[in-house]
Amino acid sequence: MVKVPLYQENQDRVALRPEYTETLAGGATADAFGSAIGKGLQSVASGMETAAEAVQRVQEMRDDAVVSDAANRWLQQKDKLLYDADTGYANAEGRQAVEGFDAYRKSVESLKGNIAAKMSPAQKERFDRQVAPFEIDALRSGVIRKSEETKKWLVQEHTAAAENFSLQAIQTPDDEARWNGYVGLGVKELDARGAKEGWGKERAELERTTYISNARLQTALHIGESDAIKAAGYATRHAADITPQDHMVLLDRLKPDLKRAAGADAAHFNASNPAPGQFAATGLSHDQYALLSVISGTESPAYDMMNGGQRISDYAAHPGFIGAGGTTTATGRYQIVRGTWERAATALGLTDFSPASQDRAAAWIAQADYRTNAGRDLARDIADGNFASIRRNLATTWEGLKKISDEEFARRLAAARLAPLAAPAAAGAVPGGASAGASAPQPAATGTSAAPVAPGASATTSGAEAPPQPAGPQFSPAVESALSALPPAYAAEIRESAADAMRDAEMQQTLREKAMQVAQAEAYRQRIDNGDSTLTPRDIKEDTVVDAGDKAALIGTLDEKKKEALATSLNVAAFHAGKLAIDVYTDEGRKANDGVWAAISAHLDEPSQRDPLLLNLIRQTGAVPTAVFDDLRLKLTRGKLDGVREALDLGNRISLVDPGALARVTDGSKIADDVVLYSHYLNSIGLTPDEAAKRVIDQKDPEAVRRRAALMDDPGMKFTIDAMARTENIQWLFRKTWSSIPPRLGNSRQQEATLVSDYKEILADSISDANAHWNFESAQILASDRIQRRYGTSEFSPEGSNVVTYLPPEKTYPPDAAGSYTYIREQLNAFLAAEGITHGGAFLTADKDTEHDVAVGAPRRYQVYYKGENGDLLHYRKQFTPKPPNPGQVEAARRAALAGLEAERLENPDVQQELGAERKRAIDEMLAWPLNIPASSSPGSTPAFPDAGPLPKTKRNGPLNKTKRKN
User: Fold this and answer.
1) Strand pairing of 803-806 and 744-745?
2) pLDDT for the residue 495
3) What is the DSSP letter of 306?
């Protein structure tokens, strides 16, 4: 029972909470007061019931939220189990769907327990009710999927089994029984599938037909991957099993490979099976073809036949092994064994085993073995009719010749010599591949393998006859049979393509033949050039690869080489005797000089052994061997210090032996200039060989050249050069003795100006090349050497012997044994007399041709002038080329001249000393000449550059080339 607290008027809470007093009446009676309290308590009880209902509604709302969220998660996870792209059961197929159903069902059923694990019982109850329909639907979808895929799986199993049996059949095309067994099992699987799918009779028959046809199609294509011809034959034999649609597909798929195979077969078959009297090689003699015809008649009719009957498939090389049914490695039309083939191939440079190579090898073997066995020439004995000897001596090489008598051999060879033996037609000239005038090749046997033949016996045809072939390229029996069974239009296209392929093959073989001929001829040339003493003209003549034109040229070259070798041998003997005489102004002379050097230096590697011989050769001939000069130039060009020093040192020693030897070689003047500088640095300045060589190298440095060029443009330097290149200074260089009258520089002011201009250029180059700067002594020495190589006085000058002229004969030809040039005078008089010219004096002048001859080391040509009856100076139209004395005479003259100078020195020491002093005073005077050098160009203001090199040379002609003379 509810207890009501007593009302206390003075309680603070009432004062504090005035709202409690809102319904109180201070004047109420006791009865009234009690009734009001009871009514209030009823109201409170009613409010509490309402509150309880509100709390319950809140809980229900919370449960709804939990269940709804759980249901959403359950649906998401269910959808993933069923529809996930990778793992969803709805995407499973066949066996995977069947075997995966239980796992799917368990996963669906376990979803509720996993999600509702933390729910209250009420929530679980509501959750179960909410997802139950969806769970039933998910399980029903799984059951449906399983039943559908179970049916599909069973169908797929039958289909896959049928496909597997078909694949097994395709892999066994040559075993028809196994093929039929596999395909039969496949048909059973198809029937089982049809029973499950409810096929009717027509559907079942169509599926069987399609299955068998596809198996035949795929089998044929499988065969065609390695042998298109065999595939075509297979398709023909089983045409009844292949539907028309599949047959069209098969022929279309096989066509490219079938064209290639038919083309290769036609090329090989036509090349391998020549008609009687037909040969592959060109260029052999008629008697050689006749002998080959007899030999092949006793050995084999085909180029691809192996001993025993097996056929080779290509001609890349001699097979080198014993074929099926054979006893030796004998192969080809002439049944050549491997060892004999290698001997012939090495001698002839043969690079394949082609029919043409077999012809050439057999012809070469016949003549080589006959010469070895009989000691006579095969061609001569054939021409003389000595047939019995030929058969007996070649029977050791070809077993087939042993099996026929001398009479039979003679009969066959005589008949062959009278027969019109056929040479090969031009590539592609005859559609069938046979030569003009020869019958089409015939097969030696059916199929791809010939019937076995006994060693040395003829291979004969055996088995069924090949089907008749239409016009055009001929095919092997197997290919012809396959083509004959194909649709006519289709087969015609294949035949036409094969004809093109055969012509291409013939053209390629012709090119290979030509390449072998060229290579063999080049091999002979190399042997000739290398001086192979074992090579004889007979070796070249009896070669069966090189054509007749090349043989003639090679034999001629060999004869010339042997003559050169003989001449070189004689020259070497003369050299060792100190009597070698060679005209080094001609190509023949220089070539002879090179031959002597090659012979005497062939086995000498050390300079200490080679150099004395070289210097002795140059002393005798006056010419530097080409190989030596090229080595000098190479070392100088490379610019390596050691090489440059070695080259300059050798060049210096060469110049001491013969000062003009280097200049006689084309471009030799440049090396001669380097040698002069090197000698100056060594002897005049006192540098070490390495320092001198370094100076020569540095003078060619591009930067140094640029700086020297700038220096030469300096006004002070130009003034100095002009002062040093005065006429009187140049005249001193050409005075014969100290007391002689200075020679004139040319015969006119214009010629004098030209010579002075040339000397200025030479002096400027010498200052630059010698790196002289403002110390000009070395430049003067170099310039004096250079100008006197080009200019000099001459007894042949029209202007007189005391006139300096350009390239006089005394500068370009050596003196005779007496130290004079009388021989030139005598030859010139004889030359004019032979032309019917009488004269009162004959003269020679240089021109551009002379300058060119000097540059290239050729015999020097001169213009001829002579005095006529009236004393007029006339010009003769022909040029004159003196013939110099032999080097022995020159050496004797040089020694006589040196002896004469020494005698003069001993007899007139004072005169010689005074002459020497006079020359020194002239040079000193030139060097001490007072110069008005501008201050800006004084030595102190000009930078020194010890690494300077030469200026680029300018082209200069002699005085007579710069003025126009009248006769």
Assistant:
1) parallel
2) 94
3) B
Size of the chain, expressed as the number of residues it contains: 967
Q: Do residues 434 and 472 touch, judged by C-beta distance below 8 A?
A: no
Sequence-separated (6 or more) residues with CB below 8 Å from residue 110: none
Cα 105 to Cα 147: distance, rounded to the nearest angstrom = 14
What residues contact residue 299 under an 8 Å CB cut-off, 6+ apart? 330, 333, 334, 335, 398, 399, 400, 456, 458
Residue 420 burial by Cβ neighbours in a 10 Å radius (0-12, 13-18, 19+): exposed
Please list the ranges in the chain whose pLDDT falls under 70: 1-46, 422-471, 704, 708, 711-712, 737-739, 769-775, 886-967
Rounded Cα distance between 918 and 914, Å, is 6
- Separation CA 269–CA 274 (nearest Å): 9
How far is residue 661 CA from its own chain's centroid?
42
Residue with tokens 């032979």: 834
* CA nearest neighbour of 255 among 478, 494, 479, 495: 494
Q: Rounded CA gap, 667 and 624, in Å?
A: 12
Terminal alpha carbon distance of the chain: 175
Q: Taking the CA atoms of 805, 809, 814 and 820 in sequence, report the sign of the dihedral they define.
A: negative
The 3 state secondary structure assigned to 349-401 is CCCCCCHHHHHHHHHHHHHHHHHHHHCCCHHHHHHHCCHHHHHHHHCCCCHHH
pLDDT value of position 585: 77
624: Cα within 13 Å, side-chain hemisphere = 32
Cβ(867)–Cβ(840) under 8 Å?
yes
Residues 303, 304, 307, 309, Cα dihedral to 10°: -120
- Is-contact 257 235, C-beta < 8 A? no
Report the alpha-carbon distance of residue 22 to residue 278 in Å, rounded: 147
Convert 211-236 to b/e letters by CB count within 10 Å (16 or more is b): bbbbbbbbbbbbbbeeebbbbbbbbb
Which residue's structure tokens are 């021409």?
383
Q: 74, 112 in Cβ contact below 8 A?
A: yes
CA–CA distance, 77 with 786 (Å, rounded to integer): 109
Nearest residue to 276 (alpha-carbon basis) of 413, 132, 135, 438: 438
Distance of alpha carbon 903 from alpha carbon 898, whole angstroms = 9
What residues contact residue 189 under an 8 Å CB cut-off, 6+ apart? Answer: 158, 159, 161, 162, 165
pLDDT recorded at residue 607: 82
Helix axes of 201-224 and 176-197: crossing angle, nearest 10 degrees? 150
pTM above 0.85, yes or no: no
Rounded CA separation 301/276 (Å)? 8
Q: Name the burial class of residue 4, with classes exposed (0-12), middle (13-18) and buried (19+) by CB atoms within 10 angstroms of its CB.
A: exposed
Tell me, what's the pLDDT at 887?
A: 56
Distance CA 507, CA 427 (A): 5
Classify residue 138 as exposed, middle or buried by CB count within 10 Å of its CB (0-12, 13-18, 19+): buried
What strands lie across the sheet with 862-867, from one edge to the other? 842-845, 862-867, 873-880
- The answer to whether residues 625 and 582 touch, using CB atoms and an 8 Å cutoff, is no
Cα(140)–Cα(146) distance, rounded to whole angstroms? 10
CA 466 to chain CA centroid, Å, is 47
- Phi–psi pair at 157, nearest 5 degrees: -60, -45
Contact of 298 with 507, CB cutoff 8 Å: no
The token pair at 210 is 């399609």
User: Which element (helix H / strand E) includes 468?
Assistant: none
